[in-house]
Design goal:
Blueprint lengths: L18 H4 L4 H5 L3 H15 L6 H4 L30 H9 L2 E9 L4 E8 L5 E6 L5 E8 L8 H8 L12 H8 L4 E2 L2 E2 L3 E8 L2 H16 L7 H7 L2 E3 L8 E3 L1 H9 L3 H13 L21 H11 L5 E7 L3 H12 L7 H4 L12 E8 L10 E8 L7 H15 L5 H8 L5 E8 L6 E9 L4 H18 L3 H17 L7 H13 L12 H14 L1 H14 L4 E9 L2 H18 L3 H19 L4 H4 L20 E5 L2 E7 L5 E9 L11 H10 L7 H11 L2 E9 L8 E11 L3 H13 L6 H21 L1 H13 L1 H10 L1 H16 L1 H15 L6 E6 L1 H16 L21 E4 L6 E7 L10 H21 L4 E7 L4 E7 L5 H8 L1 H7 L4 H15 L5 H14 L3 H12 L3 H17 L1 E6 L1 H10 L5 E4 L2
Parallel strand pairs: 3-10, 11-15, 17-21, 22-26, 22-27
Antiparallel strand pairs: 1-2, 2-3, 4-7, 4-10, 5-7, 6-7, 8-9, 12-14, 12-15, 13-14, 16-17, 18-20, 18-21, 19-20, 23-25, 23-26, 24-25
The protein binds zinc ion.
Zinc ion binds next to α6 and α10.
Length: 1074
């Protein structure tokens, strides 16, 4: 029902609607803790740094898990007038003292309309930031400094393991129990290169304190330090089913990191970081190198926990509208059990001293064998900016500089690198300032070996030129407005505001610096603005380029070479190692190992007894509101176009979507849609080149994006297919916003062949890295394309078919440009019509009212004539089982069928049951005992497609067996009332997921498009709330069809597919893509 509500914030990839379900805002992520997630979710924050670059997400460096820091990260909520004064009374001091805490300092922070109090726990020295305001989305986080000494992945394995049961909650995975049965708005854990972070959030205070208690007990009293089997399961172990078999390595983190080490972008990131910091903790991998992980011993693991998971080494964060005294009370009960330790001295991160001269590193990465390796090199230049301290204003100025250099497609460094055609896409994330010392990285991938030198020279000469000439004032104004807009709008998407604030504060606090300072941007911002006004941008920015980059001797150039043999060499080395292990074992050893493997599996597959599960706190159904969340919606008409208005408090921002119908488009033009969308924003008009157009958008608005949207509609044969233009602006700039939307729609000229060719190369590079990193999403799209028309369209716009199209198009651009250009023109012709157009606006009543005249003027300019030709796309891909071969060490396995076609009628219980299957059966079998990083299922209730997917999976056919046994699992399931209730509450938590105003307005638009009425929402909610065991049994019959008739798509390694085809006589049709 409201799965579409799990939307990402304001930046959308150009892939179609399916992204919402499997993409980076999805369940898979919420199910899987740790590194991957951290990167993905923090990416949302980083999008604010480069807010509306269409391809921004793909360009960003993701390996560090470091979010962009101080300057542009979002800050907290500001929805009400400031409280009169902080509660800095003697009385509150006394209460704190009584609870064992000393108030260190307290400030009212205007930027986030919050009172922040820093406490120290007297007995242990633990530090607590207690932030109070009126934000109902409460956040708690506990962070330990955990710098590793080697690449065995201790911090990462520990991060996974502490969530596997604790003293007070002695069940297998309280984390999963919380995922099943709480209303959390955020629940996860992240491993950084030097710290480990455990955050939770909820809008329900009872739920919130439940979550806090489970997390505190988990980090301080985990069972994993006594239970070797948890270490084996999450870290690594030898697996041997039968003494005569081969031994293999297993472990959740082990496989997760194999996946990470299969992705060239990740490898590059790691190599850059390690080369920049050879002398401190950043020189090793906190996530774990699969080659080194098996060296980790249980003793070292336990010792690491004992030493670093100590209150003296902790920073604790509370945020929101709950009672600040209660926070201290809860904490006191845990912290009082400890004495002071020396851990904070040992965990201090040492500064990396600057080099005296530049360094060069060459590394290989595994590439596909059939690939053309001519243009597959990567080169990245990195600088460590300082080994001293930077003042706040310098940090802020560097943040601006970063935006000026790289923030938008029009930014000179980014633009010049891409226009050079020396490479396909940007690598390196620009400025990174979340570790102890800031760094700057930039480079290109998809470079031919001969051009590497040229890329390096171009980077340097461009920076030199910019240091000499500076930036033009329109560019500076555009960056300034973009940054200020995102600071004031404070839109963190689905990420809790309090969490983004915490991560920002932590960026300094974790190094024992002032935790308040990163929260206060107003003063340094004003002072920077004043300086720019007074001295001019040149005097402000140019010396920084000079000092921190050009004259900085600590430069590391990393070159990555594709190596088609590396993948198989790595595998052979692993096999050899395992054979040695086997050879060193006696018969008894082998028998014992087989027995231990059995024992571990048995333990993993035995569910917790219901009595044990009762210890995990949960809400009761009485705590759940009976009605779904309402979004005020008024439907009207302007110039014959339907307009949806949502009167919501948006802090003076207007959000608008203009939806055009794609249904009249000729079928062969479909795959051009994503490039058409990009061209609208990045091609320029007759009067404005694309740089000027981009700057104008930056100066006047909060950003504009254009992307396709597709979905099936329940009960209808024809799918939805739209192009959506999204924009936002301050209340006083609404006229500019609509003028600019009109301008990009009508005035942009599709004449720049060179730029278009760049778009094609970038998109191709993006699709290729998606294949390795998000194979599950690629598999899901492919499955859908075999099952329904909407899926087929999505696949044309963002799947393997799209990649094939792009590869062909890259050649065609040179020879058939005029044809392509006129195709783009005819797409515009068939889209731009008032017929089928819908406008959605979200803002306060006054702004809505004022915006009417601009909207009306805008719609006047759109042709009213209906485009000719009705097209019906009923295409599908053939219903064959397909293996998509890519160079990878881990697989992504999917299977799906349409259960409506099998006779199933939608019932709200299906949400509860799908979630339950994902959190129990698939979690236990695919992840815990199968060793995959994730296993989940999805029911698209619009199309009726029920699908299973695995993520970074060492298995292939075995995973399919697990899928096929799901119906039986449901049939034999014994479900007690508590478990059922938890499952229902957890589902409501998803359905009611917390949304900022723009997301509320947007969800309401999507419901309108999909024909979901308020009545239906109420019915589904009641069905969810009344789910019973009977429904589980019925659903088992419904999904039987997936087992019987389901189609399979796997994104997998060549070896595994060959083995599978030998074992199961040509089961897969093989499609070698990379
Ligand atoms: Zn992990």
């Amino acid at each position: 029902m409201e799965r579409l509500a799990l939307l990402r914030s304001f930046s959308f990839s150009s892939a179609a609607g399916r992204t919402f379900i499997f993409g980076s805002g999805s369940r898979c992520q919420r199910l899987i803790s740790a590194q991957y997630q951290q990167r993905q979710q923090l990416r949302q924050l980083r999008l604010l740094r480069r807010p509306f670059s269409q391809n921004g997400a793909a360009l960003r460096r993701r390996w560090m898990g470091s979010r962009r820091g101080f300057s542009i990260a979002p800050q907290a909520v500001s929805t009400s007038p400031a409280p009169t004064s902080p509660s800095g009374t003697d009385e509150s001091n006394e209460i704190a003292l009584k609870l064992g805490f000393k108030k260190v300092s307290e400030e009212f922070i205007d930027e986030c309309k919050s009172t922040a109090t820093l406490y120290k726990h007297l007995k242990t020295g633990a530090e607590i930031m207690s932030v109070t305001n009126d934000d109902e989305n409460k956040v708690f986080g506990i962070v330990f400094r955990t710098p590793p000494k080697d690449s065995t992945g201790i911090p990462h394995i520990l991060e996974h393991s502490v969530l596997c049961g604790s003293r007070k909650y002695p069940v297998k995975e309280p984390f999963v129990e919380l995922l099943k049965g709480s209303l959390n708005t955020f629940l996860n854990a992240f491993t950084y290169p030097d710290r480990t972070c455990y955050p939770v959030a909820s809008t329900n205070v009872k739920d919130f304190y439940n979550l806090v208690d489970v997390y505190l007990d988990a980090v301080f009293f985990p069972k994993c330090v006594e239970e070797y089997q948890t270490f084996q399961q999450e870290g690594w172990h030898y697996e041997l089913d039968d003494p005569s078999d081969e031994i293999s390595f297993k472990g959740v983190v082990f496989n997760e990191m194999k996946g990470v080490y299969s992705q060239p972008d990740n490898i590059l990131g790691r190599v850059c970081q390690q080369a920049l910091f050879p002398d401190n903790t950043y020189g090793v991998d906190s996530g774990g190198d699969p080659k080194v992980i098996p060296q980790l011993t249980f003793e070292d693991f336990k010792e690491f926990h004992r030493k670093y998971y100590h209150p003296s080494n902790a920073k604790i964060w509370f945020y929101g509208d709950d009672d600040p005294t209660e926070r201290l009370r809860i904490l006191g009960a845990y912290l009082d059990q400890y004495d002071m330790s020396l851990a904070p001295n040992e965990s201090r991160v040492q500064l990396q001293k600057l080099f005296s001269g530049p360094v060069r590193v060459v590394e290989k990465y595994p590439a596909g064998e059939g690939e053309d390796h001519g243009k597959k090199h990567m080169v990245c230049l990195n600088w460590l900016l300082t080994d001293g301290e930077l003042d706040l204003e310098t940090e802020l100025t560097l943040g601006f500089l970063d935006h000026l250099l790289l923030g938008t497609p029009a930014s000179p460094l980014r633009r010049i690198l891409l226009e050079s055609r020396l490479g396909e896409a940007i690598v390196g994330g620009g400025m990174e300032d979340e570790l102890l010392q800031p760094q700057f990285s930039i480079g290109l991938k998809g470079v031919s070996e001969d051009d590497i030198q040229k890329v390096e020279e171009l980077v340097m000469s461009t920076l030199e030129k910019l240091a000499e000439e500076g930036f033009d004032s329109d560019a500076v104004e555009a960056s300034m407005n973009t940054i200020e807009f995102s600071l004031r709008e404070n839109n963190t998407g689905s990420f809790p505001r309090g969490l983004s604030l915490m991560l920002r504060s932590m960026g300094k606090w974790i190094y024992d610096k002032n935790p308040f300072e990163p929260l206060k941007y107003e003063k340094p911002l004003q002072s920077l603005k004043a300086r720019i006004a007074e001295e001019g941008p040149k005097a402000v920015f140019c010396p920084l380029i000079e000092k921190f980059i050009l004259k900085n001797p600590h430069r590391v150039t990393v070159e990555m070479q594709p190596d088609p043999k590396k993948g198989s060499e790595d595998e052979a080395a692993e096999r050899e190692l395992l054979e040695k292990v086997r050879a060193s074992m006696t018969e008894e050893d082998l028998a014992e190992l087989a027995r231990a493997t059995q024992e571990l599996r048995l333990k993993q597959e035995t569910p917790d007894p219901p009595e044990a599960l009762k210890c995990v706190p949960s809400l009761s159904l009485d705590d759940i509101p009976r009605k779904p969340t309402q979004v005020p919606t008024e439907i009207g008409e302007v110039n014959g176009v339907k307009v949806l208005r949502h009167d919501l408090f948006t802090n003076d921002v207007l959000y608008s979507e203009v939806v055009f119908d794609m249904g009249h488009l000729k079928q062969d033009l479909l795959p051009l849609i994503p490039l058409f969308c990009q061209s609208l924003l990045e091609m320029g008009t007759k009067d404005l080149d694309f740089v000027q157009l981009n700057q104008l958008i930056g100066r006047k608005t909060g950003g504009i994006s254009v992307y396709p949207f597709t979905s099936s509609v329940r009960g209808k044969a024809d799918p939805l297919s739209h192009v959506i233009v999204r924009g936002k602006a301050m209340g006083g700039r609404v006229e500019d916003l609509f003028n600019l939307i009109r301008c990009i729609l009508q005035d942009v000229q599709f004449t720049d062949q060179k730029r278009f060719k760049q778009f094609v190369s970038q998109s191709k590079a993006r699709m290729e890295s998606r294949l390795r990193g998000s194979g599950h999403a690629v598999a899901a799209t492919r499955l859908d394309a075999k099952l329904n028309a909407a899926g087929w369209i999505s696949e044309q716009l963002g799947g393997i078919s799209y990649l094939e199209f792009l590869r062909n198009l890259e050649r065609r651009v040179d020879e058939e440009w005029s044809e392509i250009s006129s195709s783009l023109e005819s797409i515009r012709g068939s889209l731009l019509s008032r017929e089928g157009c819908i406008v959605n606006v979200t803002a306060e009543a006054k702004i809505l009212e004022e915006s009417n005249k601009y909207l009306s003027k805008f719609l006047d300019a759109i042709p009213s004539s209906s485009p000719s030709g009705i097209t019906s796309w009923t295409s599908r891909l053939p219903l064959t089982n397909e293996a998509i071969i890519v160079p990878t060490q881990v697989n992504y396995v999917g299977k799906a069928a349409n259960i409506y076609e099998g006779g199933y009628n939608l019932h709200g219980s299906s949400y509860v049951i799908s979630k339950y299957i994902g959190n129990t059966w698939l979690w236990d079998r695919v992840r815990v005992s199968g060793g995959a990083y994730g296993g989940f299922c999805d029911f698209d209730n619009h199309s009726g497609v029920f699908s299973y997917l695995s993520y970074r999976d060492p298995n292939l056919l075995k995973t399919l067996d697990v899928y096929d046994a799901t119906a039986n699992f449901l049939r034999e399931l014994e479900l007690d009332d508590d478990t059922l209730q938890k499952a229902i509450i957890g589902t409501i938590g998803d359905v009611d997921s917390y949304q900022l105003p723009d997301a509320k307005g947007y969800s309401s638009l999507l419901r309108h498009l999909l024909g979901i009425s308020e009545e239906e929402r109420q019915i589904r909610r009641e069905e969810i709330l009344s789910t019973s065991v009977k429904h589980f049994r019925e659903f088992a019959d419904a999904i039987e069809v997936v087992k019987e008739k389901g189609v399979v798509v796997a994104v997998a390694s060549a070896d595994d597919v060959t083995k599978a085809n030998e074992e199961k006589g040509g089961f897969f049709e093989v499609n070698k893509v990379l």
